[in-house]
TrEMBL record:
Bias type Polar residues, positions: 254-271
Organism ancestry: Eukaryota, Viridiplantae, Streptophyta, Embryophyta, Tracheophyta
Subcellular location: Membrane
Organism: Heracleum sosnowskyi
Region Disordered: start-end pairs: 250-271
Protein name as catalogued: LRR receptor-like serine/threonine-protein kinase MEE39
Chief place of localization: membrane
All residue ranges annotated as the Malectin-like domain in the record: 7-183
Membrane topology according to the record: Single-pass membrane protein
Length: 271
């Protein structure tokens, strides 16, 4: 199925995780070598990788996609795990369809597993080309996993078709980090698991809630914010709660919280 694909890079066996099939990556790339990490994690797909020591080759994955123009979430996972015994996490470039996706610094996140995720609209060619490129003195590129999921056409509806959107953060405020699937048929732009919507942060009286987002320090760019506001307090029929949203001091409007147990989705773009 081209609509949902999970590729476990560097393994030789397929694996089922619930209803999700993790495929081997040998059908999608002709270069690189398989390796196990020395320091294992609890996530099986991060315990092996494919590394690419030959920088004279095009070290790429050819990933099947829908033949019509459609938006995807594409996620690449990285975990060094000292697989080469050198204690030297590499830095390298990541490309999609000849466009630079990002620079991968595998020492980020304190050396723990991490993802790079984008929203990307394919060109109807029927495949993505995802390439890893060595940079000078950066070390040998590697990758642990690739995932591609078709997005329902109403999700992130304000996104422009000619742009790549990099995920900077997805934060469960008031709760723990959660790894879970997304309901891609839902009416919300990005439907979180229900137990995420049961958590919240609340202001102390009239004090504001201040959230910090560390954006990449690159050329001028627009940011796409999606806020999920769930009313967890029982209100009387004549009661209401409103809040004002400001981003970098700029007024983004006032919203009224929904009825008890309901969730409002507020999108702010471009910011």
């Amino acid at each position: 199925m081209t609509g949902w694909r999970s590729i476990d890079c560097g393994t030789s066996d397929i694996r089922w995780e619930g209803m999700n099939l993790w495929e081997v990556d040998s059908d999608y790339t002709q270069t690189g070598l398989n390796k196990l990490v020395q320091k294992e994690t609890s996530r099986d797909e991060f315990n092996n990788l494919r590394f690419f020591p030959n920088n004279t080759q095009d070290n790429c994955y050819i990933v099947p996609a829908e033949t019509q123009t459609i938006r995807y979430t594409i996620r690449a996972g990285f975990y060094y795990g000292n697989y080469d015994g050198l204690s030297s996490p590499p830095t390298f470039n990541l490309f999609i369809n000849d466009l630079k996706w990002t620079i991968i610094n595998t020492s980020k996140n304190n050396g723990e597993p991490f993802y790079e995720e984008i929203m990307y609209e394919n060109n109807g060619s029927g495949f993505f080309t995802i390439c890893l490129e060595e940079i000078k003195d950066g070390g040998v590129p590697f990758i642990n996993l690739l995932e591609a999921v078709v997005l329902w056409d109403k999700m992130y509806s304000q996104m422009e078709s000619n742009a790549i959107y990099n995920l900077v953060t997805r934060t469960n405020l008031g709760g723990e980090e959660i790894s879970g699937s997304t309901d891609v048929t839902a009416t919300y732009e990005n439907y979180p698991p229900k137990f995420v919507l049961r958590n919240s942060v609340e202001s102390n009286g009239s004090d504001p809630i201040i959230l910090t987002v560390d954006l990449p320090q690159l050329t001028p760019q627009s940011t796409y914010f999606v806020f999920y506001i769930t009313e967890l307090v029982e209100k009387n029929s004549n009661e209401s709660r409103t809040m004002k949203i400001k981003i970098d001091g700029e007024d983004q409007g006032t919203v009224e919280t929904p009825n008890n147990g309901k969730t409002s989705v507020i999108t702010k773009y471009p910011v």
